[in-house]
Amino acid sequence: MAMVSDRMQWIESEERIQFSWKWPTLPRWRTLSELQQLENRLSLAKCTGKNVDEWVWKPCGSGNYTTKSLIELLNSSVESHAEPTIRNNLISQKVCIILWRASQNKLPVRSELDSRGMDLDSVRCPVCNDDIESINHSFILCKTASDIWDKIFKWWNLNSTVFADIYELTKGSNSQINTATGASIWQAIVWVTSYYIWKNRNDHVFNKTRLCNAKIVSDIQLKFFEWISSRLKKGV
Ligand SMILES: [Zn+2]
Question: For residue 165, is it left (φ>0), alpha (ψ between -120 and 50) or beta?
C-alpha cells in the first residue's frame, strides 16, 4: 500500500511540494475539491519522507480512537446540524424517514451518486430507462410513478394532478380536501405511496423484481389499512 509521502516530492529550488498521484480512476466533482483541500493542507507541512504515516483520531487529545469519543462527536453533530424531521402519526416512522430523506435530496438516486463522483454504468432511471434518475423523476415523473399516482387519485375519487416537485409531494396537501383529518389521511396516503414507489425502484436495482403497477397499488392499499387500523387501536 502506498503512503502519502510516496506521492509527495519536495522541490527544493521552488520550495514547494509536488504531488504525483496514481489514480485508477481520476477524481472529479466533490472528490476533486476534497483532494485540492488536502493538497493545500499538506503544502503547509514539510515532509521529509523519512517518517512513517500514521492515523490520528483528532477528537481525542491522545490521537487514539475511542468509541466514547465517536458517540460524543455524533451527538454534537446531530444536535447542531440536524434538519427538522417530518412526521405523520398515522403511518410508520420508516416511511416518514424516507420522505424526509427525499425532501433533503439524501436518497441515493443515480444523478446524486454521479454528482458525488461515483462511477456508475448508467445514470438513467433503473425502472423506465427513459431519463436521468433524479429524486423528482423517481417519485413523480417516471412513467411507473405517474401511473401509480393516477391510480391512487382515482381510488380517492380525486382529480389527478402532477406534483410540481418533491417539496409539494412531501407537503401532501390537496385543495380538493377540506378537513384537517382528511388532509392528514391524504398526506399519509401520499407518503405511503411514495415509500412504495421508492421500494419498487430498489427492487428493480437490487432484486431485479418486476411487479405490475396494479399489484403495487394493491400493496399500498393493504399496508395503508394495516398501519391506520393499528394506529387507531392505539388511539393515536
Ligand atoms: Zn423512470
Answer: beta
Mean pLDDT for 122-131 is 95
The answer to whether residues 55 and 5 touch, using CB atoms and an 8 Å cutoff, is no
- Yes or no: say if 116 and 28 are a contact pair by the CB < 8 Å rule: no
List of residues 6+ apart from 236 with CB closer than 8 A: 89, 90
Residue 9 main-chain phi, psi, to 5 deg = -135, 130
The Å distance, Cα 24 to ligand 1 centre, comes to 31
Q: What spacing in Å lies between the alpha carbon of 212 and ligand 1's midpoint?
A: 14
The rounded Å distance from CA 124 to ligand 1 centre is 8
Q: How far apart, in whole angstroms, are the C-alpha atoms of residue 196 and residue 87?
A: 17
Q: 196-233, pLDDT tens digit by residue?
A: 999 999 999 988 788 999 999 999 999 988 988 887 77
**Would you say 103 and 139 are in contact if contact means Cβ atoms under 8 Å apart?**
no
